[in-house]
Amino acid sequence: MTDDRFHVTLTSVGRPTMHGWWSAESTARGKVTEWIGLSKGPGARVTLVDEDTGTVLTSWPDEA
Questions:
Q1: Around Cβ 35, how many Cβ atoms within 10 Å?
Q2: pLDDT, tens only, 44-55
Q3: How many CB atoms neighbour CB 47 within 10 A?
Q4: Which of 4, 8, 16, 38 is the most buried (most CB within 10 A)?
Q5: What is the residue-averaged pLDDT of the chain?
Q6: Mapping DSSP to helix (H, G, I), strand (E, B) and coil, where does residue 1 land?
Q7: What CA–CA distances, in Å, run from 48 to 14, 16, 43?
Q8: Mean pLDDT of the 20-25 span
């Protein structure tokens, strides 16, 4: 496992507005929850990716 494995991105209308990397998945998931609360703009999306595997672990809002 690498340091800073879990990457969280907040985008609005397709443009990144915030992002960060954490080594612990639980910390990154906490940021997802926190950043959802900050997502007020149009087309906001929060995504958590495992950078080691390239897997999207969660995203908000859910895909339709």
A1: 22
A2: 999 999 999 999
A3: 18
A4: 8
A5: 90
A6: coil
A7: 15, 13, 17
A8: 97
**Which residues, in sequence order, are CB contacts of 34 under 8 Å at separation 6+?**
none
22-30: long-range contacts (C-beta < 8 A, 24 or more apart)? 25/50, 25/57, 29/57, 29/58
Give the distance from CA 24 to its chain's centroid. Answer: 13
How far apart CA 49 and CA 6 sit, in angstroms, is 6
DSSP codes, 2-63: -TT-EEEEEEETTEEEEEEEES-HHHHHHHHHHHHHH--STT-EEEEEETTTTEEEEEESPP
Cα distance between residue 23 and residue 37, in whole Å: 22
Q: What is the pLDDT of residue 2?
A: 56
Number of Cβ atoms within 10 Å of the Cβ of 29: 16
